[in-house]
Amino acid sequence: MTCDFVSEYNLLKKSTAGYSNDCLYDVAVLKLLMAPVQSSNLGYMQQTDKPRTMSTIDYGQTAEDHQGLLVLVKHTGQALSQQKFRKVWDRTKKLNSVSIPGQNRNAWVRYKQHYPKENNEWGDFQAHRKVLGLISVGECRTVEEFEDLFDHYKNVKEEYASTLFNSRLIVFGMNRDGTPLEEEMDNPVLSLHSSQDKADSEDSGVTSDISPSDNVAMHEKPLLKETKSDPYGSVSKSSSEGKITFVGKKPLKKQESSPVPVYQYSPISTPPGTPPLQRPHSNSLTKDSTGAEVLFFPSIQDCSDLEEKLKEFIVSLFFVLEGKRLDRSFERHDRIQLLCAPFERKDYVGLDTDTKSFRKKCQGRLRKHLADLCLQAGLPGEAILHYETAIDILRPVNDALWIGACYEGLSSAAVVINYPKSVVLSGLRRNYFSLSSKRGSSMLNEAKLRTGSLNNKTNGMESAPENLSRVAPDPTDIMDKFREALGHYSKFKSAAVIEIELSLKACRVLTMQGKCLQASTFLQNVIYINCNISEEDKILRYCTLSELYADIGFHRKAAFFKRIAAMQCVSSPQATQQNWSCCYSLLIQALDGYNISHNLIERCNGPHSGWPVLQSRVLNELIFSARRMGKIPIAIRNTTFMIHFLHQFMTLMEKRDISQTLEQLTTQTDDGNCQSLALDNGMILPPVPLTTIPYVKSFKLIRMRPHLEPVKLKRYGESTNSGPFIFTPLNLGMSRNDKDDGKMDFGLVARDVCEVQLQVYNPLPDELKVTQMGLIVEGVELEPYPCNPSIPAETGPYLVKLLCRPKSEGELHIIGYFTKVMGVKSQCRLKDLDQLNFDKIKVSVVPPLPQIMLTTSLPKADNFLSGDNSEYVVTSGTTVLYAGQSMECLVTLQNTSLQPVEHVDAEVICKIEEKDYLGQVFQWSMENIQSQLPLQPNGIMCFTLCINGVSDFLSDNVDLETADQCVECLLRVEYSGGDGLQAGHCRQCAVNLSVDICPSVIIQVWDALPAERCDHCYLIFDLLNASGHDLSIQHSNQESVSILPGHTERIAVEIERCDFPSLPDMTYLRNRIKQSKNTNHYSTYLNQFVDIRWKIPSLKASGKLSIDYIEWSEEQLRQIQISPIEWEVKLNGSFFPQKGALEWSVLDCLDVVASVTVNTEESCNRSALLYITCHQDDDDCDNVSVLGVNTAFFETVKQGQSLLINPAFLIHCGGIYTIDIKCVVISSEEVEETFHYHPVKLHVIEIADSAF
């Protein structure tokens, strides 16, 4: 580090306090790189004269390039398009390795499209820098065009004539024999002859490499002495003229021949004394004294043998090289010349060459040059021995530059041996290394593909005298050799380019070895090397540093040098739009190093990373570059990204400034800027949805109001029994970060408006005006209703409602929303919002359904209790009834939609235990409803709802003032029609009905007594007036009885004895009312025979008394039921009963005849006991004498058998006596069943009293 840089660094350190060391380093390097180039480097040798240095640096060079043959591929002429040349180039560069026939070696080739002539002059210093082959590619249609094409080819060849071994001119658009395509088509005989020539000739379409005239001339002339400028021993330049001739045609033109080296040991040269070869197709175009082959092809599609011709060309280069290697191996010491670097030649002018040190320099440099040739010839092991020998020779004479070249060559040979490449795998990758500045970046990956075998014969070690492990340096020692070479190069200012390329080679080798920190030291050395290069080379230099830093994992440094390269593009005040485009392209590539990604998915993963200050600076530079380019949409995209990505780290003033900038940019273009933008370099800028401006906290689809929500029809509905509910706190199979599928448990209806509610925040310091905001959906066509909310500054949550209308049925996917904020359109996807736990909202849309308006004739209730299905309530109705009273209510349905109503069903919704009871309170006729269908649009339907004041009419000592009963339920109406009905969907609405049932009459006491007739009985009721008004009671055909409020009246209702039906299933007894009392089976049956009605004249209210809930005792039921025993009783010959009590006199004999017929079903093993008693006050007394038998036992009683008993009683004292007649039936299981005849009352009068 120089003194000037130290002082600069200290100043920067004070001005950048608070940043990390890496940031300080970047700022310091930035200052150094952008400063003017210093006049000298402290480590370089001071020279007075301007040296001859290389003008261009090969930033993509690798250590393996030392073994490659450099071939120049030129686009010749203007007829051939760039696209066609690119196809030929792609096919050519794949031939980077060619197996040599007869040799166990491969020839590695490097292809270049452009190569400076100054760099070619350094071929004596390093052989791999010399252009050995030339391939010119062009197109022509006529002979005249070919002449021009050949002239261009000749001019290129003359530039590199001093080093070329061989060359080819590939011409498209002519026949393989060199004739125009039209001639072959017009002359079929010539075409046939030409095809026969192709079959006879092994290399048809190719002129001889060395023309016959050149052959003769070559053997006539003696070999010239080698010069310094021709280290390969080429012949001197010839000045003879050549001709382009056609067989059988006039010469076209005479031109001067270009100087071409002819090599004595070239395997493709013609031996002396050999007559010139005559080709069968002698009408091919030739150039005398050119030494070049011309390959003709009709088109790029018709050149299948192009690769074979190129292989032959590469093989020819190899054999010439092999010949030169053998020449150098056996060259005499007295003829050795001094090889020099271009800038060294002036130093040896006038120098004494007859010294020992000079001869050692000549020997050492020649040995080093021989090592280069061995390495190119596929003998790296032999090359290592020559490099080591050259070092030993040159070290005593302190030839530092060439010693450094020896160490570099030694390291390169070691890399070739220790990291050999497969020939098959290197077909494309090898060329990629030689042509791209990134080729060293793939060495780390390709190292895994290399065999690593130390006995690989393709490295040329089969001729090595020692084992490879003793000859080749260890991989760990390679870097030491590179450092030695770097130390020697640093002594020469003119070798700065060589030093830079060496550092890049070492870095790539270390990257391949995985030694990233050591690789970074070589890259830092590149930064401080002073070299006068063009602005374009500086840009390429920084880009190469960036790519190599990225390869070793220093991504932020890589991004830093990308920024330096971008600044270099526009460092000149006269920067053009093209320079700004290049600047923008480099800046966009530097974003990844600063953890800035335009990929929304990558950006959303994890918290914010990177330094916001640096990120803001880079994005500002990107925006400025886009504006200078004149690409306003791109500037808008970058500004949008910046405000979206970094607004949380900006100050209020920065937020306001960037917002105003964005608004100004959007006013300059009409483009909504919501599509991907393609850059000039092919990169795609994805759209930047402003998901944070405004920030959406919640996104919720609001379900339709319950009475409008679609419901599955009962006949289409699935079973609601989904099994038992099992709760577990365990999280089985789901992560907390997993998003659910967003499936809604409700549906929407086509052509009905749905609503989405968003809670948004505005992070900006000014009011945010969203000029457009709506939904993004899939699956179902939607009619949106965009809104334009204005969100106050720095506020939230702010409610935004988005409305839409599905146009058809299907599954609707709401995947996001769109906005237009500050002139920028954004399509925000729900999957990109981390605050939401779903990627999309899925909801089913059913076909259109009708909509009705439901009303009743009852007054609306002020409030009502909420319960199950209360959400379907659209209206309410309330009334007051007295127990037993009934009324009618009119329910109206009006169709307010465009769909007809074809299905209507009504149902009372209540608790299961109340369903039967409320079914008695509310009643209607479904036949009446069905008769009015279908209900057309705007049509009206009415049906009658009967409301009954059902009560038990019993009292459990409840206060009469609080005995009112409130009955509340829902009358749910289900309706459907049109396509929705066909799909099995409907809508449901309900009326909340509230009925207060007040007590009217309460049954306090009830009983059953026998009537005068045996087949009748009396039902006795004590009725209490609980209505609070005067009330009248009327039953059967009797006159009405008035009861005052709070008073009780007894009534007797005579009915026929009945035979009760069998008891029903117990589920019938589950119809309960609020008082939790059961209806009685017997009472329900008796209720049809009892008609008791009440009337309240003051209220004009009337009703019917019900006895459904009365519980009868067993004795009472016997009085009501038809007895299984038929009685026939006579008293003194008269049938009983008679009204009132019988009067009898004392000592009068009472004859009783009782006949009993048993009608029970059982008839086997049954006995009966029949007896008659006469007693007073339920006690046996001695005042009665029994005449005859009053007890009879019948051992066997059959069905229908009559049992007879005839006792007589004599009463001695007056009083009230009772005659009881009983029949006890004893079954076979000894179960006794007693039947009573109703008691007979006797009023016995004393004789004296009667006489009195």
UniProtKB/TrEMBL annotation:
Skewed-composition ranges (Polar residues): 204-214
Biased composition (Pro residues): 269-278
Trs120/TRAPPC9 N-terminal domain location: 118-420
Pfam families: Ig_TRAPPC9-Trs120_1st, TPR_TRAPPC9-Trs120, TRAPPC9-Trs120
Biased composition (Basic and acidic residues): 217-229
Localization (cell): Golgi apparatus
Keyword annotations: Golgi apparatus
Region (Disordered): 191-285
GO cellular component: trans-Golgi network
Trs120/TRAPPC9 first Ig-like domain: residues covered: 717-827
Domain Trs120/TRAPPC9 TPR region residues, every copy: 537-668
Family: Belongs to the NIBP family.
Protein name, per record: Trafficking protein particle complex subunit 9
Organism: Magallana gigas (Pacific oyster)
Lineage of producing organism: Eukaryota, Metazoa, Spiralia, Lophotrochozoa, Mollusca
